[in-house]
Amino acid sequence: MAYSEKVMDYFSNPRNVGEIKDADGIGEVGNSRCGDIMKMYIKVDDSGVITDCKFKTFGCGAAIATSSMATTLIKGKTVDEALKLTNKAVMEALDGLPPVKVHCSVLAEEAIKAALSDYYTRKGIDPEPIVGKIESHDHEDLACDL
């Protein structure tokens, strides 16, 4: 399985690793049977800009790289802009992923949306009309070898 240089860089030198103690939103997605579990933390200022975004991921190199890239792509963006992040954009920013690892980019998108959903919930706003329904996907039909 061949990875792009960018995937290898974001795996070997992940950006934004860690947690935010006073996060405005936290989202966790994944599948313990698969091994890929992502937890995203966001800090949002009063104008709706994501001023900080961190992640903790347990999983394969592609899961770490996609988590790292997703945080890089939304940091400094508005909440509305972050809501538009797609797994395709994450994959393109990493110069692609092998087909059996596409699910990692899907998890990264879902983790960001879960954190945004939590952000709205903490503000007393029903997140479902804005973010959509956050569901747990098992991704059991996809290859998840570590």
Describe this structure in words.
There is one protein chain. The chain is of the alpha+beta class and 146 residues long. Helices cover 40% and strands 17% of the residues. The chain contains six helices and three strands. It has helices spanning 5-12, 61-74, 79-83, 87-93, 102-122, 128-131; strands at 25-31, 36-44, 50-58. Strands 1-2-3 form a three-stranded antiparallel beta sheet. β2 (36-44) and β3 form a beta hairpin. α1 (5-12) packs across α2 (61-74) and α4 (87-93) crosses α5. The longest helix is centred in the C-terminal third of the chain and has 21 residues, at 102-122. The model is unreliable at 138-146 (pLDDT under 50).
Structural class based on helices, strands and sheet pairing: alpha+beta
Biggest beta sheet summary: 3 strands, antiparallel
Q: How many angstroms does the end-to-end distance come to?
A: 12 Å
Report the average pLDDT across residues.
91
Q: pLDDT under 50 segments (min length 5)?
A: 138-146
Number of helices: 6
Beta fraction of the residues? Answer: 15-25%
DSSP E strands, number: 3
Radius of gyration: 14 Å
The general outline is: globular
Which strand order does the major sheet show?
1-2-3
Compressed to H and E, one letter per element, the order equals: HEEEHHHHH
Give the % helix. Answer: 40-55%
